[in-house]
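Thought: the user wants the 3D structure for the chain below. I'll pass the sequence to the structure tool as-is, report back what it returns, then summarize two notable features.
Action: structure_tool
Action Input:
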Amino acid sequence: MAHDAHEQNNSIFKVGINLTLACFLSSAVIAGTYALTAPVAAKSQIELDNKARKELVADAQDFKAVEGKKGWYAALKDGKVIAYVVPTESKGYGGAINMLAAVSAEGKVIDYAILKYNETPGLGDKAEKPEFRKRFAGKTAENLEVVKVPSDKNIQALTGATITSRAVTKGIKEAVEQVTAFAATQKK
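Observation:
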C-alpha cells in the first residue's frame, strides 16, 4: 500500500514537471513570435496612420509630429505647414466617438475621419459618410453649429441622429479651436 502511494506521488510530480515544461515552452514560443512580429506590426501601423493622414490632407507631401502635442501632426507642403491633423473625441449616442480632424493653418476644417464609434447602424453611422463629412469642409469654428433646417452656413443634423451630429460637430469644433489657438502662437 505504501508503495502505491509513493508511485502516485511520483506520478503527480511527473505531471507537474511536464505541465511546467509545456508552459515554459509555450511562453518561449509566444515571446519569440512577438519579438519577431512586433517591429513589423509597428511599421504597418505607422503606414496605416500615414495613409489616414494623407487621405485627410491630400495636398500634403509629408507629416511631422508636433512637439508637445500628443497625436498631432503638421501637414507639410514645400516645407510649409498647410494643415494640422489632430485627434479629437466627443460623446455620441452610443458612447465615445474618436476622430482625426484635419484643420488648415487658417482654422478651417478640411476633413475628418471617424476612428472608433458605437452609433446606431443606419442612423448615427452616417456621420462617417462623405455626404455628411463634406458639410464641414471650409467651415471655421463659429460656423460649426448643428441646425435642423438646411443651411450653407452651419451643419445640418443627420435625420434621426441629432445626438451623433452634435457630438461629431462638437469634437471637430474643439479641434478647430485648438488648432487656431496653436497656429496663432506659431506665427509670433
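Final Answer: Structure generated. Strands lie at 62-65, 73-77, 80-92, 95-104, 109-116, 146-147, 155-156. Residues 43 and 49 are 10 Å apart (CA to CA).
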